[in-house]
């Protein structure tokens, strides 16, 4: 891996953006490495929680200009309609690099310091929970370079904060400071230092990792489904989920652990088969 450092401890996977000298800009390798990392953790059930943090002054400055310079966002061909169809597929590929966070069975927590710019907003809006430092800011910067954000900001951000704020940020390219991000619900809390933020995030991650992974995965699936469907559909789906996933054994273990004042012993999620 050239863009990330990864550690797994106490069932918590910590993915760290590790290109601080480049403001953790998302070069071509980034778009391949992140989904590979997340899918490996998810499909092989290597952790119960994923934490994403960064290094240096800024969380990320967004898409690396080298991706444009190297032709990473262009497609071959002479026919404009054929090129347009191929470009749509390329955008879908980039979107998938962040959709894997939404699709992962375990919660993903983002710890954001400094600038979270452009595609950084796309990425963090695909996470389950966000925290930031008091000097952090969020910026839908694509409009400032003459393009529309296309990797996931609008479909997700409109479900996270009031639409008026999404429109202001998208149309003007302004920065959203940490205090306002907390006020409108984009982040759960803002901390004075990155160290304090990470301490809080890792404590939360460990607490989640102690719960039943099946119950947590079910909660994430239900929350995502409710976000994307009607109340009636979501109620029907959770009834169907419970019919297959309700576990008296896990409930009994939770009560026994609480009574015995000990940590509960829940089974990990099973790895997913990649082939028959």
What labels would you give this structure?
9 strands, 2-enoyl-CoA Hydratase, Chain A, domain 1, three-stranded mixed beta sheet, 14% strand, Lyase 2-enoyl-coa Hydratase, Chain  A, domain 2, six-stranded mixed beta sheet, single chain, 2 domains, alpha/beta, 276 residues
**Large-scale geometry:** globular
Query: From the coordinates shown, what is the CATH architecture of the largest domain?
Result: Alpha-Beta Complex
Largest sheet: 6 strands, mixed
The number of domains is: 2
Give the averaged pLDDT, no decimals.
95
Helix content: 40-55%
Taking all Cα atoms into account, the compactness measure Rg is: 20 Å
Characterise the protein shown here:
48% of the residues lie in helices and 14% in strands. It has two domains: 4-209, Alpha-Beta Complex (2-enoyl-CoA Hydratase, Chain A, domain 1), CATH 3.90.226.10; 213-260, Lyase 2-enoyl-coa Hydratase, Chain  A, domain 2 (Orthogonal Bundle). β1 and β2 form a beta hairpin. The strands form two sheets. A six-stranded mixed β-sheet has the order 1-2-3-4-6-9, with helices on both faces. Strands 5-7-8 form a three-stranded mixed β-sheet. With 276 residues, the protein is an alpha/beta fold. The chain is globular, with a radius of gyration of 20 Å.
Walk me through the topology.
Layout: E1 4-9, E2 12-17, H1 28-43, E3 49-53, H2 65-69, H3 80-103, E4 108-112, E5 115-117, H4 119-125, E6 129-133, E7 137-139, H5 153-157, H6 163-172, E8 175-177, H7 178-183, E9 190-191, H8 194-209, H9 213-228, H10 231-245, H11 248-260
Parallel strand pairs: 2-3, 3-4, 4-6, 5-7, 6-9
Antiparallel strand pairs: 1-2, 7-8
Helix pairs in contact: 1-3, 9-10
């Amino acid at each position: 891996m050239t863009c990330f450092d990864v550690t797994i401890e106490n069932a918590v996977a910590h993915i760290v953006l590790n290109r601080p000298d480049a403001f953790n800009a998302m070069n071509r390798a980034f778009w391949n490495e992140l989904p590979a990392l997340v899918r490996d953790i998810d499909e092989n059930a290597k952790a119960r929680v994923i934490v994403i943090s960064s290094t240096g002054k800024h969380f990320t400055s967004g898409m690396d200009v080298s991706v444009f310079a190297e032709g990473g966002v262009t497609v071959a061909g002479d026919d404009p309609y054929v090129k347009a169809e191929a470009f749509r597929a390329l955008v879908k590929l980039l979107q998938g690099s962040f959709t894997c966070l939404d699709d992962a069975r375990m919660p993903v927590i983002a710890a954001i310091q400094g600038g979270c710019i452009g595609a950084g907003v796309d990425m963090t809006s695909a996470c389950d929970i966000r925290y930031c430092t008091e000097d952090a800011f969020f910026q839908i910067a694509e409009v400032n370079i003459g393009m529309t954000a296309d990797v996931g900001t609008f479909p997700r951000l409109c479900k996270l904060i009031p639409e008026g704020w999404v429109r202001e940020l998208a149309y003007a390219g302004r920065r959203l400071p940490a205090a306002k991000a907390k006020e409108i619900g984009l982040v759960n809390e803002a901390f004075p230092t990155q160290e304090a933020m990470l301490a809080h995030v890792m404590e939360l991650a460990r607490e989640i990792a102690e719960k039943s992974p099946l119950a947590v995965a079910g909660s994430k699936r239900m929350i995502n489904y409710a976000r994307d469907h009607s109340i009636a559909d979501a109620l029907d789906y959770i009834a169907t989920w419970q019919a297959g996933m309700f576990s008296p054994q896990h409930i009994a273990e939770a009560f026994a652990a609480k009574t015995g004042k000990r940590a509960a012993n829940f089974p990990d999620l099973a790895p997913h088969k990649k082939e028959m």
